[in-house]
Automatic annotation (TrEMBL):
CDD domains named among the record's database cross-references: DnaJ, DnaJ_C, DnaJ_zf
Quaternary structure annotation from Swiss-Prot or TrEMBL: Homodimer.
Provenance organism: Pseudooceanicola algae
InterPro entries listed in its UniProt record: DnaJ (IPR012724), DnaJ_C (IPR002939), DnaJ_domain (IPR001623), DnaJ_domain_CS (IPR018253), HSP40/DnaJ_pept-bd (IPR008971), HSP_DnaJ_Cys-rich_dom (IPR001305), HSP_DnaJ_Cys-rich_dom_sf (IPR036410), J_dom_sf (IPR036869)
Function description: Participates actively in the response to hyperosmotic and heat shock by preventing the aggregation of stress-denatured proteins and by disaggregating proteins, also in an autonomous, DnaK-independent fashion. Unfolded proteins bind initially to DnaJ; upon interaction with the DnaJ-bound protein, DnaK hydrolyzes its bound ATP, resulting in the formation of a stable complex. GrpE releases ADP from DnaK; ATP binding to DnaK triggers the release of the substrate protein, thus completing the reaction cycle.
Family stated for the protein in its record: Belongs to the DnaJ family.
Any GO MF annotation of the entry: heat shock protein binding
Main location: cytoplasm
PROSITE patterns hit by this protein: DNAJ_1, DNAJ_2, ZF_CR
Annotated binding of Zn(2+) 1, by residue: C154, C157, C207, C210
Compartments (UniProt record): Cytoplasm
UniProt protein name: Chaperone protein DnaJ
Keywords for this protein: Chaperone, Cytoplasm, DNA replication, Metal-binding, Repeat, Stress response, Zinc, Zinc-finger
Any Pfam family: DnaJ_C
Length: 382
């Protein structure tokens, strides 16, 4: 039985372009695949026929020989077939041919192939910069210039990696695909091309400054804006301020991680501030006014109620930290710490002794505590 014309097999006109041949085979492969035609016993033979046609027409040299001599180019030792007649044994190089279509059908879904089948440039790495700020700086915000060691685009070759800014050439090993294939039985195994490291291109005359990388190591100065209200763990992203990409690829990002230093006066919880203020025993007992600092550098006057105890808290509204993304400010809480006087003079001791003798009914907390202790001991005796 005479062989059908390869162009007819793929539903193409003679002289079709490489792209048209690939599309024609893709369509036939999906239409005739045996897994989709279990009820059609002739589908497998038709599929093999389409595979054989594609194996010839996808190769520029074989296609030229076929266009000139037809099927005779691969029969009788004319040499166009490269030593093995396509379709020998009825199968042809099924793995090699079908893998092209498999890549087109599923490569994007699997993330395995870049547009156009090539990966000419790679994105630069993201960078991390740890910045410590004071609580006052976190309150007010600040603008600061930082120095970041990174890779920047080579100015000598404009990032191309080639001397004089020339263009890279297609890798001869992988034909620009960035991957090479090895046939193992029915399966085709893909690996990163060892010649171009997956880039799909090589540089014959590398730039003397960057040695073909398209980037060089430099310390880069960058002005950053730290907004008011940041706290430890806040992450600020600077798009495109990271490491330069390989051979003109896009730059990565810079992430600034904030660490707010501990403060000698204030403790922070979210947007609220806490300040522990010592007061004398007399002030706590008699009441009075005290001045306390605020995070903005100002002062606030606080009235101490008569008979205040240690641990008592008072709130100063909106004197805390600003919210990072707006929404006002937190509060500041004053916690009293009543101090016991030390290094008393003889006269002070006499006065305190006299005061204690007159204070049997002035210590409600002590009275309640010792009453509970007495009840505890009595229950233990029982």
């Amino acid at each position: 039985m005479a062989k059908r014309d390869y162009y007819d097999v793929l539903g193409l006109q003679k002289g079709a372009s490489a792209e048209e041949i690939k599309k024609g085979y893709r369509k036939k492969a999906k239409e005739l695949h045996p897994d989709r035609n279990t009820d059609n016993p002739g589908a497998e033979d038709q599929f093999k026929e389409a595979n054989e046609a594609y194996e010839i027409l996808k190769d520029a040299e074989k296609k030229a020989a076929y266009d000139r001599y037809g099927h005779a180019a691969f029969e009788g030792g004319m040499g166009g077939g490269g030593g093995q007649r396509p379709g020998a044994g009825g199968h042809g190089d099924f793995g090699s041919a079908f893998s092209d279509v498999f890549d087109d059908l599923f490569g994007d879904f699997m993330g395995g192939r870049q547009p156009g089948g090539r990966q000419r440039a790679t994105r630069g790495a993201d960078l991390r910069y740890n910045m410590r700020v004071s609580l006052e700086e976190a309150y007010a915000g600040l603008k600061k210039t930082i120095s970041v060691p990174t890779s920047v685009t080579c100015t000598k070759c404009s990032g191309s990696g080639a001397e004089g800014g020339g263009e890279p050439t297609t890798c001869p090993t992988c034909s620009g695909m960035g991957k090479v294939r090895a046939q193992q039985g029915f399966f085709t195994v893909e690996r990163t091309c060892p010649t171009c490291s997956g880039l799909g291109q090589i540089i014959k005359n590398p730039c003397s400054e960057c040695h073909g990388q398209g980037r060089v190591e430099r310390e880069r100065s960058l002005a950053v804006n730290i907004p008011p209200g940041v706290e430890t763990g806040t992450r600020i992203r600077h798009s495109g301020a990271g490491e330069a990409g390989m051979r003109g690829g896009p730059s990565g990002d810079l992430y600034i991680f904030i660490d707010v230093a501990a403060h000698p006066i204030f403790e922070r919880e979210g947007v609220n501030l806490f300040c522990r203020v010592p007061v004398s025993m007399a002030t706590a007992a008699l009441g009075g006014d005290i001045e306390v600092p605020t995070i903005d550098g100002g002062r606030s006057r606080v009235k101490i109620p008569e008979g205040s105890q240690s641990g008592r808290q008072m709130r100063l509204r909106s004197k805390g930290m600003p919210a990072l993304r707006g929404g006002g400010a937190g509060d500041m809480f004053i916690e009293l710490a009543v101090e016991t006087p030390v290094n008393l003079t003889h006269r002070q001791k006499e006065l305190l002794k006299e005061f204690e003798d007159l204070s049997e009914e002035n210590n409600p907390e002590s009275e309640g505590f010792f009453k509970s202790v007495k009840n505890f001991w009595d229950s233990m005796k029982g």
